What we know:
42% helix
Amino acid sequence: MPTILVTGGAGFIGSCFVRQCLADRFARVVNLDKLTYAGNLDSLANAAGDPDHVFIQGDIVDGPLVGRLLAEHQPEAIVHFAAESHVDRSIDAPAPFVQTNVLGTFQLLEAAWHYWTNLAPPRRERFRFLHVSTDEVFGSLDSADGRFTETSPYRPHSPYAASKAAADHFVRAYFRTYGLPVLLTNCSNNYGPYQFPEKLIPLAILHALAGKPLPVYGDGRHVRDWIFVEDHCRAIRMILERAAPGSEFVIGGDCQRTNLDVVRAVCRAIDRLCPGFALAPCESLIEFVPDRPGHDRRYAVDATKLRRELGWRPTVDFEVGLDQTVQWYLDHADWVARILSGEYRGRRLGLGRTP
């Protein structure tokens, strides 16, 4: 099996990618994660004791650490998930987003370039650096506009989106200037099990189950394109295996929904999966709150290139995936409780070492 260095592999999307790699024996994983509030080793419980998984707590901004890991483990690829990713947090405190998303990506690229240039020719040809980004770098679409593609101009509106846009530009620059064999993906909104409860869908699920108001920004008509996290990670694996260096792909589920429609769908799923629930119908808990600053009106992604060139397509219908997600949170009250109490931040699970 090849070895992959995964950054941010204890986060929502990164941990899904790690679980897929280990379940399918797709790769041996060296997992580097800083374990900020969003990094949760409980999401990697199935990896405990797996000889093909090595966990290291560390920061991608630490260039010497990254260099040592590359020299020690000799990976065939780096898959870069590590990022600060919550828009509201970026509005309140943008500095950590610049530190991790911009400077961290730069340090990772520097270490990768030095490592790659010293590889023997056959291994140099196989090496890839895959950077996972967001469709938010493209800004906002009007209702009459089409969808984002790989050639859409960058117009980030939040500090989070701006930091990811800067990282994307550095990734392209290292390909154009130094020849580093990069791959770049920009994905739409993900959902699924193990997602941190500050995001819309898990927040709605947990608030509804607790009988709390379900906050919806503004008029609730902001549109997002949703993709089940397992489908996203399958796309990343396919791109990693098949795409040529310098390739860029947008990834989306072809599933546009308003935020209000998403929250209503969560409510219907809970009403259906929890017969006799005292607070049914859950829609009565919906509460409109003042809109956040700079809130983009619509995102939509056209993944035609990914479908045409690599044959990928999403396999999980939104309603099916949403039912699976709601049921997962119902079945994993202990995981949720450890998040809400903060206890999860003290767990190490014997997954590896701290440098």
